[in-house]
Amino acid sequence: MVETYVVYTGINDAIFTINLPYIKFGFGASKEVGFEAKRLGLKKVLLVSGKRLSQTKLFDEIKSIIENEGIKVYTTDKVHIEPEDEALIEAYKEIKHLEIDGFIALGGGSTIDTAKVLNLLYTYPADIFDYINKPVGKGLSPPGPLKPLIAIPTTAGTGSESTSVAIIDVLKLKVKTGISNPYLRPTLALIDPLTTITLPPMVTASSGLDVLNHAIESLTTRPYTTRPAYKNPAERPVYAGSTPLADVFGLKAIEWVHKYLRRAVANPYDIEARYYMMLGASIAGIGFGHAGVHVPHAMAYPIAGMIRNWYPEDYEFGYPIAPHGIATAIPAISAFKYLTPYNHEKFALVCETLGFDVKGLTPIEIGKILSEYYIKLLEDLRIPTSLKDLDYKVSDLEALVNGTLAQQRLLSLAPKNITKKDLEKIFLELL
Ligand SMILES: [Fe+2]
Fold first, then answer.
1. How far lies 133's CA from each of 288, 341, 429, in Å?
2. How many CB atoms lie within 10 A of CB 109?
3. How many angstroms is it from 300 CA to the middle of ligand 1?
4. What is the pLDDT of residues 193-218, one digit of tens each?
């Protein structure tokens, strides 16, 4: 392990936080939802789940486990993949008259994010733009804690069950942003690898790639000690930059994705692979929930937002989609290579964790190794390695670059100051 932190200068911030939900992990953890809801004193809950999932046996089972504890369960399936502001407001209008004292989210990142926002709007009603991050919204904090939220993730990817962020697609501005606030973090996460057994291969692959990106990006964000010292603790951001503790989570997650992602995609019933992918997703989520992510995730926003003509297998929604994990993994091919010279010790550590001997290599050679690793991994998972394959053209360059530049909250965590020219070079290699 390379210790790369200048721990105290007096000029820079010397404090990082450790924030975790209470987590129960393991086979069958989701079945303890009734016990946990009761323990939290819940009497009437809203069970939030997407359309597909709410028609499954798993949904019926979770619902009856909660009901068996004498708890009233209301349900909503108003979950959009990559939630939009207008859809969230619509969903809120449908539930605001209900008398509920807690929320349960069963699903992937979009479902958990939807539940976080519904909980916020329900507990402290306000215009959604009051809460959305600056500069799109006012970035206001709710006055106090929200209602209890139990998150039961069903994909091994987003880590949303551990984070205090909800991603929101603001339709009229065509920009993806979110709400970041410590009060958004679920009260409890029930993380059960068995919930991922039925995920189709492409969904498993995309979610797993998201985990790898979370881990590598959070590890290579600029250290928290490079931020200015805050006079007002309230100004300290949720995404703080890398910390020695977040690094530990990131490195272990890289090791597990490297070892188990191909296996989980090849055989959905490989429960050992499912177990470690789920644990990897959770700890990578904890890592990036503290450190943040940077360039590939910022690039993924316009890549997903501008998609016109790509319909990946296993994502049959009837509209074009660039699944989040794929939209972050393709940019990683060129972005990590480009950024390696600016944080080569950490990128060398990533490569070593992936099994490469990088002793004596130059930063440029290290970056190339990581780029080639991504290409091979994506090819093995039958995922495109270029934006051309997603029907993007060089004529889209400017819009893609501008869409990425709008993500300053993430770009500011990159190991170098990111300019328009940097992004042009990174994107051009993929077009
Ligand atoms: Fe992500």
1. 18, 31, 31
2. 29
3. 9
4. 999 998 899 999 999 999 999 999 99
Q: What is the pairing mode between strands 149-153 and 72-76?
A: unpaired
CA of 210 to the centre of ligand 1 (A): 5
pLDDT at 120 over 90: yes
Residue 172: what pLDDT?
Answer: 81
Share of the chain above pLDDT 70, in %: 99
Residue 196 Cα to ligand 1 midpoint, Å, equals 17
Q: What's residue 2's pLDDT?
A: 57
Asked if residue 7 has pLDDT above 90, the reply is: no
Distance 327 CA to ligand 1 centre (A): 9
Strand partners, 108: none
User: What does the pLDDT look like over 159-170, one tens digit per residue?
Assistant: 899 889 998 988
Q: Which helix (H) or strand (E) holds 191?
A: strand 188-191
237, 227, 223: which is closest to 134 by C-alpha? 237
Cβ neighbors of 281 (< 8 A, separation 6 or more) are: 153, 155, 156, 157, 158, 159, 207, 208, 210, 211, 253
Residue 101 in tokens: 């004292």
Residue with the two structure tokens 């890549």: 303
Q: Name the CA dihedral angle for 197, 201, 207, 210, rounded to a multiple of 10 degrees.
A: 140
Residue 248 alpha carbon to ligand 1 centre in Å? 18
**Residue whose structure tokens are 């189709």:** 200
Distance 371 CA to ligand 1 centre (A): 19
Does this model's pTM top 0.85? My answer is yes
Residues 6+ apart with CB under 8 A from 147: 100, 101, 102, 103, 119, 122, 123
* Half-sphere exposure at residue 60, Cβ-oriented, CA atoms within 13 angstroms: 3
How far does the centroid of ligand 1 lie from the alpha carbon of residue 112, in Å?
A: 13
Beta bridge partner(s), residue 106: 152
290 CA from centroid of ligand 1 (Å): 14
For ligand 1, the distance from its centroid to the CA atom of residue 35, given in whole angstroms, is 31
Round to whole Å and give the CA distance between 285 and 329: 16
Judge whether 148 and 115 are in contact, CB under 8 Å.
no
What is the distance between the alpha carbons of residues 324 and 414, in angstroms, rounded to a whole number?
Answer: 19
Q: What does the pLDDT look like over 312-323, one tens digit per residue? A: 887 877 788 889
Distance 324 CA to ligand 1 centre (A): 6
